Amino acid sequence: MRIPAVKMPAVKSLRWLPHAAVAVAAVAAAWGGVDWWQAAHDDGMTRASARDSALQAGRTAVAGLTSLDYRQAAAGYQHWLDVSGGPLHDELAQGRQANLDRVAQAKTVTTGTVTDGAVTGLDAAGGTAELIVSVELVVTPEGGQAVEKHNRFKADLTRGPGGWLVAGLDQVPVEENS
Description:
elongated; 44% helix; 5 strands; 5 helices; 31% strand; alpha+beta; five-stranded antiparallel sheet
């Protein structure tokens, strides 16, 4: 018994398939390259990165500027000088000894924790930023009970070679809910 021969399609008709796959891969690679280039040169990404770094540095600096332990006042005060710049730095440097004397007399440990913050203004090209932060302060007098306070601060930042520094720090009134 003889099995009838089945006619196979010509192999020639599939020779275009590898060429088409290479073309599709080349188009996809080119598209991905253009997308990558656009993302790398997007002003929005640069601005977002500057905003995020200003916020992080500002939060850290304000927490440091609202914390001081009278038992290690000189080191804590030096930290204040390290995270400050501009007018705030000048004011702190000028009043260093008087402030250290007040801290020694008060004998308190103050710990500031930034609980929330936001950038309210940014000039990335000019190297300035403004933020507002909410700070929980715990003030503990020597031999006394800790007192918790909640404050808001407006911080003016400047960017220097070492990063963002707090150039101005002002308390913003907080309305307490009754």
